[in-house]
DNA sequence: CATGAAAATTCACACCA
DNA sequence: TGGTGTGAATTTTCATG
Protein backbone atom coordinates (compact mmCIF):
# COMPACT_ATOMS: atom_id res chain seq x y z
CA UNK A 1 0.00 0.00 0.00
CA UNK A 2 1.68 3.18 -1.21
CA UNK A 3 1.32 6.82 -0.31
CA UNK A 4 -1.47 7.42 -2.83
CA UNK A 5 -3.59 4.56 -1.48
CA UNK A 6 -3.18 5.95 2.03
CA UNK A 7 -4.21 9.41 0.83
CA UNK A 8 -7.31 7.91 -0.79
CA UNK A 9 -8.17 6.00 2.39
CA UNK A 10 -7.71 9.10 4.52
CA UNK A 11 -10.25 10.95 2.38
CA UNK A 12 -12.77 8.10 2.38
CA UNK A 13 -12.43 7.61 6.14
CA UNK A 14 -13.37 11.24 6.56
CA UNK A 15 -16.13 11.48 3.95
CA UNK A 16 -17.07 8.65 1.63
CA UNK A 17 -19.42 10.82 -0.42
CA UNK A 18 -16.45 12.61 -1.98
CA UNK A 19 -16.71 12.13 -5.75
CA UNK A 20 -13.97 10.04 -7.30
CA UNK A 21 -13.01 12.97 -9.49
CA UNK A 22 -12.35 15.11 -6.41
CA UNK A 23 -10.37 12.37 -4.71
CA UNK A 24 -8.35 11.86 -7.88
CA UNK A 25 -7.47 15.53 -8.07
CA UNK A 26 -6.43 15.69 -4.43
CA UNK A 27 -4.12 12.68 -4.71
CA UNK A 28 -2.70 13.73 -8.08
CA UNK A 29 -4.38 11.25 -10.42
CA UNK A 30 -7.16 11.24 -12.97
CA UNK A 31 -10.45 9.59 -12.19
CA UNK A 32 -9.97 6.18 -13.79
CA UNK A 33 -6.76 5.06 -12.05
CA UNK A 34 -8.11 6.50 -8.82
CA UNK A 35 -11.38 4.63 -9.28
CA UNK A 36 -9.44 1.43 -9.97
CA UNK A 37 -7.42 1.84 -6.78
CA UNK A 38 -10.61 2.26 -4.78
CA UNK A 39 -12.09 -0.85 -6.37
CA UNK A 40 -8.97 -2.80 -5.53
CA UNK A 41 -8.94 -1.57 -1.94
CA UNK A 42 -12.51 -2.83 -1.66
CA UNK A 43 -11.72 -6.18 -3.22
CA UNK A 44 -8.70 -6.57 -0.95
CA UNK A 45 -10.96 -6.00 2.04
CA UNK A 46 -9.17 -2.86 3.18
CA UNK A 47 -12.37 -0.88 2.70
CA UNK A 48 -15.01 -2.96 4.45
CA UNK A 49 -18.12 -0.84 4.06
CA UNK A 50 -19.51 2.66 3.84
CA UNK A 51 -21.93 3.71 6.54
CA UNK A 52 -23.79 6.74 7.83
CA UNK A 53 -22.78 7.90 11.30
CA UNK A 54 -25.70 9.19 13.34
CA UNK A 55 -25.78 11.64 16.20
CA UNK A 56 -26.12 9.78 19.54
CA UNK A 57 -27.81 12.68 21.31
CA UNK A 58 -30.43 13.04 18.60
CA UNK A 59 -31.19 9.34 18.85
CA UNK A 60 -31.51 9.61 22.61
CA UNK A 61 -28.54 7.38 23.39
CA UNK A 62 -26.25 9.99 24.88
CA UNK A 63 -25.11 7.82 27.80
CA UNK A 64 -22.25 5.35 27.38
CA UNK A 65 -21.61 2.62 29.93
CA UNK A 66 -18.61 0.33 30.04
CA UNK A 67 -19.32 -3.08 31.50
CA UNK A 68 -16.45 -5.20 32.74
CA UNK A 69 -17.36 -8.89 33.00
CA UNK A 70 -15.68 -11.75 34.82
CA UNK A 71 -16.77 -15.33 34.47
CA UNK A 72 -15.99 -18.75 35.80
CA UNK A 73 -17.25 -20.49 32.65
CA UNK A 74 -14.73 -20.79 29.85
CA UNK A 75 -16.24 -23.41 27.59
CA UNK A 76 -16.63 -22.89 23.86
CA UNK A 77 -20.39 -23.47 24.04
CA UNK A 78 -20.81 -20.89 26.77
CA UNK A 79 -18.81 -18.35 24.79
CA UNK A 80 -20.90 -18.87 21.67
CA UNK A 81 -24.04 -18.36 23.73
CA UNK A 82 -22.61 -15.17 25.23
CA UNK A 83 -21.58 -13.85 21.82
CA UNK A 84 -24.98 -14.53 20.28
CA UNK A 85 -26.79 -12.80 23.13
CA UNK A 86 -24.55 -9.75 22.80
CA UNK A 87 -25.01 -9.72 19.03
CA UNK A 88 -28.77 -9.55 19.51
CA UNK A 89 -28.66 -6.52 21.84
CA UNK A 90 -28.39 -3.36 19.72
CA UNK A 91 -27.46 -1.22 22.72
CA UNK A 92 -24.17 -3.13 22.99
CA UNK A 93 -22.00 -1.53 20.34
CA UNK A 94 -18.57 -2.94 21.29
CA UNK A 95 -17.51 -6.24 22.80
CA UNK A 96 -13.95 -7.34 23.57
CA UNK A 97 -12.26 -10.35 25.07
CA UNK A 98 -9.64 -9.01 27.42
CA UNK A 99 -6.43 -10.19 28.98
CA UNK A 100 -5.89 -9.50 32.65
CA UNK A 101 -8.37 -9.32 35.48
CA UNK A 102 -11.52 -8.62 33.46
CA UNK A 103 -12.49 -11.31 30.96
CA UNK A 104 -14.77 -9.24 28.72
CA UNK A 105 -15.48 -5.57 28.19
CA UNK A 106 -18.68 -4.16 26.70
CA UNK A 107 -19.61 -0.67 25.60
CA UNK A 108 -23.31 0.03 25.92
CA UNK A 109 -25.23 3.08 24.67
CA UNK A 110 -28.53 4.03 26.30
CA UNK A 111 -30.68 7.10 27.06
CA UNK A 112 -30.28 6.96 30.84
CA UNK A 113 -29.55 4.83 33.89
CA UNK A 114 -32.98 3.26 33.85
CA UNK A 115 -32.55 2.05 30.28
CA UNK A 116 -29.15 0.69 31.16
CA UNK A 117 -30.72 -1.34 33.91
CA UNK A 118 -32.96 -2.93 31.30
CA UNK A 119 -30.00 -4.00 29.21
CA UNK A 120 -28.16 -5.17 32.31
CA UNK A 121 -31.09 -7.33 33.45
CA UNK A 122 -31.47 -8.82 29.99
CA UNK A 123 -27.79 -9.68 29.93
CA UNK A 124 -27.65 -11.44 33.29
CA UNK A 125 -30.92 -13.20 32.52
CA UNK A 126 -29.60 -14.72 29.29
CA UNK A 127 -25.97 -15.45 30.23
CA UNK A 128 -24.32 -16.85 33.32
CA UNK A 129 -21.81 -14.23 34.47
CA UNK A 130 -19.81 -14.29 37.71
CA UNK A 131 -19.00 -10.65 38.24
CA UNK A 132 -20.08 -7.47 36.50
CA UNK A 133 -18.94 -3.92 37.15
CA UNK A 134 -20.38 -0.96 35.26
CA UNK A 135 -18.70 2.41 34.75
CA UNK A 136 -20.58 5.40 33.39
CA UNK A 137 -19.08 7.83 30.92
CA UNK A 138 -20.01 11.43 31.60
CA UNK A 139 -18.72 12.78 28.30
CA UNK A 140 -17.47 11.45 24.99
CA UNK A 141 -14.51 13.71 24.28
CA UNK A 142 -13.23 11.93 21.19
CA UNK A 143 -14.71 9.29 18.96
CA UNK A 144 -13.50 8.48 15.50
CA UNK A 145 -13.89 5.57 13.13
CA UNK A 146 -10.76 6.71 11.26
CA UNK A 147 -7.91 4.28 11.85
CA UNK A 148 -4.28 5.45 11.81
CA UNK A 149 -2.64 4.75 8.44
CA UNK A 150 0.89 5.00 9.77
CA UNK A 151 1.55 1.26 10.06
CA UNK A 152 0.07 0.10 6.73
CA UNK B 1 -39.13 10.93 13.97
CA UNK B 2 -41.58 8.36 12.65
CA UNK B 3 -41.26 4.72 11.66
CA UNK B 4 -40.28 5.54 8.08
CA UNK B 5 -37.42 7.80 9.17
CA UNK B 6 -36.14 5.04 11.44
CA UNK B 7 -36.31 2.55 8.61
CA UNK B 8 -34.32 4.92 6.41
CA UNK B 9 -31.72 5.43 9.15
CA UNK B 10 -31.40 1.70 9.71
CA UNK B 11 -30.57 1.21 6.04
CA UNK B 12 -28.08 4.09 5.91
CA UNK B 13 -26.37 2.94 9.10
CA UNK B 14 -25.80 -0.39 7.45
CA UNK B 15 -24.83 0.80 3.97
CA UNK B 16 -24.88 4.40 2.90
CA UNK B 17 -24.21 3.55 -0.75
CA UNK B 18 -27.74 2.21 -1.14
CA UNK B 19 -29.43 4.19 -3.94
CA UNK B 20 -32.27 6.41 -2.82
CA UNK B 21 -34.60 4.58 -5.19
CA UNK B 22 -33.84 1.29 -3.38
CA UNK B 23 -34.32 2.86 0.04
CA UNK B 24 -37.60 4.37 -1.11
CA UNK B 25 -38.88 1.03 -2.29
CA UNK B 26 -37.89 -0.73 0.94
CA UNK B 27 -39.63 1.83 3.15
CA UNK B 28 -42.70 2.10 0.94
CA UNK B 29 -42.15 5.49 -0.66
CA UNK B 30 -41.13 6.85 -4.03
CA UNK B 31 -37.75 8.42 -4.50
CA UNK B 32 -38.64 12.10 -4.16
CA UNK B 33 -40.25 12.08 -0.69
CA UNK B 34 -37.64 9.59 0.48
CA UNK B 35 -34.87 11.84 -0.79
CA UNK B 36 -36.43 14.82 1.01
CA UNK B 37 -36.55 12.90 4.29
CA UNK B 38 -32.88 12.05 4.00
CA UNK B 39 -32.02 15.68 3.31
CA UNK B 40 -33.98 16.76 6.34
CA UNK B 41 -32.35 14.16 8.57
CA UNK B 42 -29.01 15.58 7.47
CA UNK B 43 -30.03 19.18 8.07
CA UNK B 44 -31.39 18.24 11.48
CA UNK B 45 -28.03 16.74 12.37
CA UNK B 46 -29.36 13.23 12.87
CA UNK B 47 -27.13 12.02 10.06
CA UNK B 48 -23.74 13.48 10.90
CA UNK B 49 -21.56 12.09 8.14
CA UNK B 50 -20.92 9.19 5.81
CA UNK B 51 -17.61 7.42 6.16
CA UNK B 52 -15.72 4.39 4.93
CA UNK B 53 -14.94 1.77 7.58
CA UNK B 54 -11.56 0.14 7.07
CA UNK B 55 -10.30 -3.26 8.17
CA UNK B 56 -8.08 -2.90 11.27
CA UNK B 57 -6.07 -6.05 10.54
CA UNK B 58 -5.30 -4.93 6.98
CA UNK B 59 -4.07 -1.61 8.32
CA UNK B 60 -1.91 -3.37 10.88
CA UNK B 61 -3.76 -2.05 13.91
CA UNK B 62 -5.24 -5.31 15.13
CA UNK B 63 -4.47 -4.69 18.80
CA UNK B 64 -6.80 -2.64 20.97
CA UNK B 65 -5.71 -1.30 24.33
CA UNK B 66 -7.93 0.34 26.92
CA UNK B 67 -6.15 2.91 29.06
CA UNK B 68 -7.69 3.97 32.35
CA UNK B 69 -6.34 7.28 33.60
CA UNK B 70 -6.48 8.92 37.00
CA UNK B 71 -5.26 12.42 37.67
CA UNK B 72 -4.85 14.88 40.52
CA UNK B 73 -5.17 17.89 38.21
CA UNK B 74 -8.70 19.01 37.51
CA UNK B 75 -8.27 22.51 36.14
CA UNK B 76 -9.92 23.62 32.91
CA UNK B 77 -6.56 24.53 31.37
CA UNK B 78 -5.12 21.10 32.10
CA UNK B 79 -8.16 19.40 30.61
CA UNK B 80 -7.92 21.42 27.39
CA UNK B 81 -4.26 20.47 27.13
CA UNK B 82 -5.10 16.80 27.66
CA UNK B 83 -7.89 16.91 25.09
CA UNK B 84 -5.71 18.59 22.47
CA UNK B 85 -2.91 16.07 22.97
CA UNK B 86 -5.35 13.18 22.60
CA UNK B 87 -6.92 14.77 19.51
CA UNK B 88 -3.49 14.87 17.89
CA UNK B 89 -2.74 11.17 18.44
CA UNK B 90 -4.47 9.16 15.69
CA UNK B 91 -3.97 5.87 17.53
CA UNK B 92 -6.40 7.08 20.21
CA UNK B 93 -9.81 6.49 18.67
CA UNK B 94 -12.05 6.93 21.71
CA UNK B 95 -11.76 9.14 24.76
CA UNK B 96 -14.27 9.40 27.62
CA UNK B 97 -14.55 11.28 30.86
CA UNK B 98 -15.77 8.77 33.41
CA UNK B 99 -17.54 8.81 36.72
CA UNK B 100 -16.20 6.61 39.47
CA UNK B 101 -12.67 5.56 40.25
CA UNK B 102 -11.10 6.15 36.82
CA UNK B 103 -11.23 9.73 35.57
CA UNK B 104 -10.70 9.06 31.86
CA UNK B 105 -10.82 6.06 29.58
CA UNK B 106 -9.03 5.80 26.24
CA UNK B 107 -9.23 3.22 23.47
CA UNK B 108 -5.99 2.90 21.54
CA UNK B 109 -5.39 0.90 18.34
CA UNK B 110 -1.85 -0.23 17.50
CA UNK B 111 -0.03 -3.05 15.69
CA UNK B 112 1.60 -4.53 18.80
CA UNK B 113 2.80 -3.97 22.34
CA UNK B 114 5.89 -2.11 21.19
CA UNK B 115 3.85 0.40 19.22
CA UNK B 116 1.57 0.85 22.21
CA UNK B 117 4.58 1.72 24.30
CA UNK B 118 5.34 4.51 21.85
CA UNK B 119 1.86 5.97 22.23
CA UNK B 120 2.04 5.54 25.99
CA UNK B 121 5.38 7.37 26.24
CA UNK B 122 4.09 10.18 24.05
CA UNK B 123 1.04 10.53 26.27
CA UNK B 124 2.86 10.73 29.59
CA UNK B 125 5.47 13.04 28.06
CA UNK B 126 2.88 15.58 26.94
CA UNK B 127 0.36 15.41 29.79
CA UNK B 128 0.69 15.18 33.56
CA UNK B 129 -1.12 12.02 34.63
CA UNK B 130 -1.16 10.49 38.11
CA UNK B 131 -2.01 6.90 37.43
CA UNK B 132 -2.39 4.87 34.27
CA UNK B 133 -3.46 1.27 33.86
CA UNK B 134 -3.56 -0.44 30.48
CA UNK B 135 -5.67 -3.47 29.54
CA UNK B 136 -5.15 -5.37 26.31
CA UNK B 137 -7.99 -6.71 24.23
CA UNK B 138 -7.28 -10.11 22.75
CA UNK B 139 -10.22 -10.13 20.39
CA UNK B 140 -12.85 -7.71 19.09
CA UNK B 141 -15.99 -9.81 19.14
CA UNK B 142 -18.45 -7.08 18.21
CA UNK B 143 -18.01 -3.59 16.87
CA UNK B 144 -20.73 -1.58 15.23
CA UNK B 145 -21.28 2.07 14.46
CA UNK B 146 -25.02 1.42 14.18
CA UNK B 147 -26.84 3.03 17.09
CA UNK B 148 -30.09 1.56 18.45
CA UNK B 149 -33.12 3.39 17.06
CA UNK B 150 -35.47 2.17 19.77
CA UNK B 151 -35.44 5.35 21.86
CA UNK B 152 -35.72 7.95 19.09
C1' DC C 1 -47.02 12.38 -0.90
C1' DA C 2 -47.12 10.33 -5.90
C1' DT C 3 -45.91 10.70 -10.60
C1' DG C 4 -43.16 11.92 -14.38
C1' DA C 5 -39.38 13.80 -16.31
C1' DA C 6 -35.42 16.58 -17.19
C1' DA C 7 -30.64 18.35 -16.03
C1' DA C 8 -26.48 17.71 -13.68
C1' DT C 9 -23.39 14.79 -11.67
C1' DT C 10 -21.00 10.64 -11.03
C1' DC C 11 -19.93 5.95 -11.96
C1' DA C 12 -18.15 2.23 -14.54
C1' DC C 13 -15.67 0.38 -18.13
C1' DA C 14 -13.61 -0.28 -22.91
C1' DC C 15 -9.58 1.09 -25.09
C1' DC C 16 -4.92 3.21 -25.67
C1' DA C 17 -0.11 4.49 -24.16
C1' DT D 1 0.12 1.55 -13.79
C1' DG D 2 -1.88 5.96 -15.71
C1' DG D 3 -4.88 8.61 -19.27
C1' DT D 4 -8.93 9.71 -22.63
C1' DG D 5 -13.53 9.15 -23.93
C1' DT D 6 -18.21 7.45 -23.51
C1' DG D 7 -22.66 5.15 -22.19
C1' DA D 8 -25.15 3.96 -18.06
C1' DA D 9 -26.74 4.88 -13.56
C1' DT D 10 -27.84 8.05 -9.96
C1' DT D 11 -28.77 12.17 -7.88
C1' DT D 12 -31.16 16.32 -7.66
C1' DT D 13 -34.59 19.48 -9.00
C1' DC D 14 -39.00 20.82 -10.70
C1' DA D 15 -43.14 20.46 -12.80
C1' DT D 16 -48.37 18.68 -11.91
C1' DG D 17 -52.06 16.21 -9.40
TrEMBL record, chains A, B:
SMART domains (UniProt xref): HTH_ASNC
Domain HTH asnC-type: 1-64
This protein's UniProt keywords: DNA-binding, Transcription, Transcription regulation
Source superkingdom: Bacteria
tRNA processing listed as a keyword: no
Pfam families in alphabetical order: AsnC_trans_reg, HTH_24
SUPFAM superfamilies to which the protein is assigned, alphabetical: Dimeric alpha+beta barrel, Winged helix' DNA-binding domain
PROSITE patterns in the record: HTH_ASNC_1, HTH_ASNC_2
InterPro entries (UniProt xref): ArsR-like_HTH, AsnC-type_HTH_dom, Dimeric_a/b-barrel, Tscrpt_reg_AsnC-like, Tscrpt_reg_AsnC/Lrp_C, Tscrpt_reg_HTH_AsnC-type_CS, WH-like_DNA-bd_sf, WH_DNA-bd_sf
PANTHER family per UniProt: DNA-BINDING TRANSCRIPTIONAL ACTIVATOR DECR (PTHR30154:SF17), LEUCINE-RESPONSIVE REGULATORY PROTEIN (PTHR30154)
Designated name of the protein: Lrp/AsnC family transcriptional regulator
Organism encoding this protein: Ottowia flava
Amino acid sequence: MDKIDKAILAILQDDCTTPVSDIAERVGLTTTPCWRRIQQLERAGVIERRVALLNPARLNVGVTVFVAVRTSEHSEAWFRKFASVVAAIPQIVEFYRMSGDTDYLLRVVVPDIAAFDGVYKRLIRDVKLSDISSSFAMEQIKFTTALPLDYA
